C-alpha cells in the first residue's frame, strides 16, 4: 500500500468547518462540534459545527427571507443562471481541491473523484443553469370568454438531506434544480462527509449567490429531522436508506411537505449467453465495485445465463483479484476504504451471512490490513434468491452471482424485490433487450452498459427505491408549483 507521502496527490487544507447561515460562517448555537473521521486510518480529520433545531430555525428564517422578499425573489431568471454558471466555473477552477476533500473525507480513489464525481457535479450545475430562464407555463383554451394561463413558480424553501457516498455530486443534484427554479436551500450534508459541501458553499458565495439562498447546517439525523418538522420549509429532498425515508414521511405529515426520495436498490444486472461476455464481465465489475460498492444503483444481483455461467465466473473473479485496494490518494488505487465503521461492520456481517447460508465465496471475504475500513473485493456464487446477500442492500464490494435460464424466468426473478432503482441487460438480441427494458420495474435500465449518468437523464426509483426523479427536466417538476390564472375578458 503506498503511503500518502509517496503519492502524487495530497490531501488539501481544510478551509471551512463552520455552518453557513444567511451568508455568515458561524459556530452552532449550542457550541457543539462533531468529528469527521479519515476512513483510511480512523484518525480525526476535523471537528465540524453540529447544528440542532435552533440552528435549523435560524437557517429557515434566512432562507425564507431570501425567498419571500430577498434578492433571490427579485432576480431575473437569466441572472440566476449566470450565477450558477459562475459557480460551475469556480468548481472547475478548484477541481483538485474539491476532489481531494472528497477523497480525504469519503475514502474514494482520487482518480474516481477527479474523473467522475467532479466532472458530473460541474456538468449538473451547468445543465441546470441553462434551465433557469426556460421554465414556462401554458396558455389554455378553457370554455367561456376567459384568458387562462399557468405559471411555473418555485416550490419555496427546500430542505435537502444528502448521504456520504457521493457528497459533492449529491449536493449538485439537489442544488441544480432548486436554484434554477428559484428556490432557496437549507442543506444538511451527511455526518460522515461534510467537508466538500462546506467548501462548495464557499464557492457559491464567491460566485455571488446572495446571502440566505444556500444555507448549510451540518449534523446527524436529528438535524435532518428538525428540518423535516419545521413548518417554514416547503419541501424535503432526501437521499439515503428507505427506513430513514419512512421516518421522514411520518415527520413530514404534520406540515404535508412535498417529498422526494432517492433510496437504495438491489439492482439486477442480467447477462444473457449471447452477450459480448468480456464487455459484460467488465460492466459487472464496474457496476458493482465502483465507489467501493457504495452506490444506490449497484448491480448487486448479477444474473448469468446458465450456459455461460462458469466462464463468466472465472473471468469476473480474475478481474476482482486485480483490483488495487489501498491508499485512495494513490492514483493507481481502484478501491479505497468503506466510509465508516458502521458500513464496514455491516458489510462484513453480510459476508458472514452469505457463507453461513451456503453461498460459495470465490474470492475476498476479509478485511484488508488492520487499520481503516478496507474490505477485499468479494464474489459469491451459488447464491439463491432468498439469501440475505441476494435480498438486502449490502452497499459494499460484495457481488452475488445467480444463474438463470431464459427471458420469462429472469423477468420474474429480477422483479422479485421491494426495490426498483436500476437494472441492466447484456445481450446482442434487440428484441430481448427491449422486452427486458419494458418488463423490469425500475427507474433506469442500461443495455450493454452500466452506471451511465448524465445531468439531462432522469434518475430515480420505482417501488421502495424512491419517489420523484432527480436530474433532467423531470427534477424541475419537484421544485416547482403550477399556478392557474384565469382572467375574464368581459
Ligand atoms: P441514512 O439514510 O441514515 O442517512 C442519510 C442522510 O439522512 C444523512 O445525512 C443522515 O444524517 C440523514 N438522516 C438520518 N436519519 C434521519 C432522520 N430521522 N431524519 C432526517 N434525516 C436523517 O443512511 P446511512 O445510515 O448513512 O446508511 C445506511 C444504509 O443506507 C447504507 O448502508 C445503505 O444501504 C443505505 N444508503 C443508501 C444511499 C443511496 O444512495 N440511496 C446513500 C447512503 C446510504
Ligand atoms: Mg443512519
Number of helices: 16
Shape: globular
Query: Which small molecules are bound?
Result: 1,4-dihydronicotinamide adenine dinucleotide, magnesium ion
Strand content: 15-25%
The span between the termini is: 80 Å
Strand order of the largest sheet: 14-15-16-13-12-17-18
Largest sheet: 7 strands, mixed
Mean pLDDT: 97
Task: Walk me through the structure.
This protein is of the alpha/beta class. 39% of the residues lie in helices and 19% in strands. The protein contains 16 helices and 20 strands. The strands form five sheets. A seven-stranded mixed β-sheet has the order 14-15-16-13-12-17-18, sandwiched between helices. The chain has a six-stranded mixed β-sheet with strand order 9-8-7-10-11-19, with helices on both faces. Strands 5-6-20 form a three-stranded antiparallel β-sheet, with no helix packed on it. Helix 7 links the parallel strand 8 and strand 9. The longest helix is centred in the first third of the chain and has 22 residues. The protein is globular. Bound molecules: 1,4-dihydronicotinamide adenine dinucleotide and magnesium ion. 1,4-dihydronicotinamide adenine dinucleotide binds next to helix 8, helix 9 and helix 12. The site of 1,4-dihydronicotinamide adenine dinucleotide has 27 residues, from helix 8, helix 9 and helix 12.
Amino acid at each position: 500500500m503506498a503511503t500518502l507521502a509517496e503519492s502524487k496527490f495530497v490531501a488539501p487544507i481544510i478551509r471551512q468547518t463552520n455552518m453557513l447561515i444567511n451568508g455568515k460562517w458561524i459556530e452552532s448555537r449550542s457550541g457543539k462540534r462533531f468529528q469527521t473521521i479519515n476512513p483510511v486510518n480512523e484518525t480525526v480529520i476535523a471537528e465540524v459545527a453540529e447544528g440542532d433545531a435552533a440552528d435549523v430555525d435560524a437557517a429557515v428564517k434566512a432562507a425564507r427571507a431570501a425567498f419571500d422578499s430577498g434578492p433571490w425573489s427579485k432576480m431575473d431568471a437569466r441572472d440566476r443562471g449566470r450565477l450558477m454558471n459562475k459557480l460551475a466555473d469556480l468548481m472547475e477552477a478548484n477541481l483538485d481541491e474539491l476532489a481531494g476533500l472528497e477523497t480525504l473525507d469519503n475514502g474514494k480513489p482520487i482518480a474516481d473523484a477527479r474523473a467522475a464525481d467532479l466532472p458530473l457535479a460541474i456538468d449538473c450545475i451547468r445543465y441546470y443553469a441553462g434551465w433557469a430562464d426556460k421554465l414556462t407555463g401554458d396558455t389554455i383554451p378553457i370554455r367561456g370568454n376567459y384568458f387562462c394561463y399557468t405559471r411555473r413558480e418555485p416550490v419555496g424553501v427546500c430542505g435537502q438531506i444528502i448521504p456520504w457516498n457521493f457528497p459533492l455530486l449529491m449536493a449538485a443534484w439537489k442544488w441544480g434544480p432548486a436554484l434554477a427554479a428559484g428556490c432557496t436551500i437549507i442543506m444538511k450534508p451527511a455526518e460522515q462527509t461534510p467537508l466538500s459541501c462546506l467548501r462548495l458553499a464557499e464557492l457559491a458565495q464567491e460566485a455571488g449567490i446572495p446571502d440566505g439562498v444556500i444555507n448549510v447546517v451540518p449534523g446527524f439525523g436529528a438535524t435532518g429531522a428538525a428540518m423535516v418538522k419545521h413548518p417554514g420549509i416547503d419541501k424535503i429532498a432526501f437521499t439515503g436508506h428507505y427506513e430513514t425515508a419512512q421516518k421522514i414521511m411520518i415527520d413530514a405529515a404534520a406540515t404535508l411537505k412535498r417529498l422526494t426520495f432517492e433510496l437504495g436498490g438491489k439492482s439486477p444486472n442480467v447477462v444473457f449467453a449471447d452477450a459480448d461476455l468480456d464487455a459484460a464481465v467488465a460492466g459487472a465489475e464496474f457496476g458493482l465495485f465502483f465507489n467501493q460498492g457504495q452506490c444506490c444503483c449497484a448491480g448487486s444481483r448479477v444474473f448469468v445465463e446458465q450456459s455461460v455461467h462458469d466462464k463468466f465466473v472465472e473471468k469476473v473473479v480474475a478481474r476482482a483479484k486485480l483490483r488495487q485496494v489501498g491508499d485512495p490518494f494513490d492514483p493507481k488505487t481502484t478501491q479505497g476504504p468503506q466510509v465508516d465503521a458502521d458500513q464496514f461492520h455491516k458489510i462484513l456481517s453480510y459476508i458472514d451471512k452469505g457463507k453461513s447460508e451456503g453461498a460459495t465465496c470465490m474470492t475476498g471475504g476479509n478485511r484488508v490490513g488492520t487499520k481503516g475500513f478496507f474490505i477485499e473485493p468479494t464474489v459469491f456464487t451459488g447464491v439463491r434468491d432468498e439469501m440475505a446477500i441476494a435480498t438486502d442492500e449490502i452497499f459494499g464490494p460484495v457481488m452475488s452471482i445467480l444463474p438463470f435460464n431464459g427471458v420469462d424466468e429472469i423477468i420474474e426473478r429480477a422483479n422479485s424485490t421491494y426495490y426498483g432503482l436500476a437494472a441492466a441487460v447484456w445481450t446482442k438480441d434487440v428484441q430481448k433487450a427491449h422486452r427486458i427494458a419494458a418488463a423490469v420495474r425500475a427507474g433506469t435500465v442500461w443495455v450493454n452498459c452500466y452506471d451511465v449518468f448524465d445531468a439531462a437523464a432522469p434518475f430515480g426509483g420505482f417501488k421502495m427505491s424512491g419517489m420523484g426523479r432527480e436530474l433532467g427536466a423531470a427534477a424541475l417538476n419537484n421544485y416547482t408549483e403550477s399556478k392557474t390564472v384565469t382572467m375574464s375578458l368581459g
